[in-house]
Amino acid sequence: MQRNIRLVREKFPEWLADANEQTAEVVRKGARRNIRNIDAYATGTMYESIEVTHSPGGLVFAVGSTAKYAPYVEFGARPHFPPLDAIREWCRVKGIPESAAYPIARAIARRGLPERPFLYPAFLEGMTRHAKAVQAAVTGGLKRLLA
Q1: Which strand (E) or helix (H) includes residue 135?
Q2: Are 48 and 75 in contact (CB under 8 A)?
Q3: Which positions ≥6 away from 62 have C-beta within 8 Å?
Q4: How many CB atoms lie within 10 A of CB 15?
Q5: Is the pLDDT higher at 21 or at 142?
Q6: Are the CB atoms for 109 and 80 separated by under 8 Å?
Q7: CA 35, 71, 42, 126: dihedral to nearest 10 degrees?
Q8: What is the Cα–Cα distance from 105 to 129, expressed in whole angstroms?
Q9: Average pLDDT of the segment spanning 3-30
């Protein structure tokens, strides 16, 4: 019995890390799916920038975007005059005449940008599944350990 308890204590962090990794992947995939669903996919920069990082041992995972403008998509932005080059590129990718870049920039300067969350909804989706992932990882680990 003591041997089994010791083995469970040794293996539990590994099992938890597996469940954390599964949940982080659910969040990453969900964020990418949401980027497409909210029509925030233009050049693919933000979509490709969704990455998962983890601590040594895998007990802490982080999912986020390295794209500079990702927070402005997620949380919106106050009125500001955006870089015209970025607006022109967005127009080009979306098939909008580049002559629309300045009026679009002026509209953003007047109204700002609304929030279009892509990461937080993916996080909520991952967290709803996380308890089941932990339970499955621990149950599977216990079955292998005690078999």
Answers
A1: helix 119-146
A2: no
A3: 24, 52, 53, 54
A4: 20
A5: 21
A6: yes
A7: -20
A8: 40
A9: 86
Query: HSE of 14 in the Cβ direction (CA atoms, 13 Å)?
Result: 10
Query: What pLDDT score was predicted for residue 4?
Result: 67
pLDDT surpassing 90 at residue 43: no
Predicted pLDDT of residue 18: 87
pTM above 0.85, yes or no: no
Q: The tokens of 22 are what?
A: 């599964």
> What's the burial of 70, exposed, middle or buried (CB within 10 Å: 0-12/13-18/19+)?
buried
Question: Which residues are bridge partners to 50 per DSSP?
Answer: 65
pLDDT score of 74 more than 70: yes
DSSP character string of 87-130: HHHHHHHHT--GGGHHHHHHHHHHH-B----SHHHHHHHHHHHH
DSSP 52: E
What are 62's strand-pairing partners?
53
Calpha distance 66→47 (Å, rounded): 10
Could you tell me which residues are beta bridge partners of residue 65? Answer: 50
- pLDDT the model gives residue 73: 95
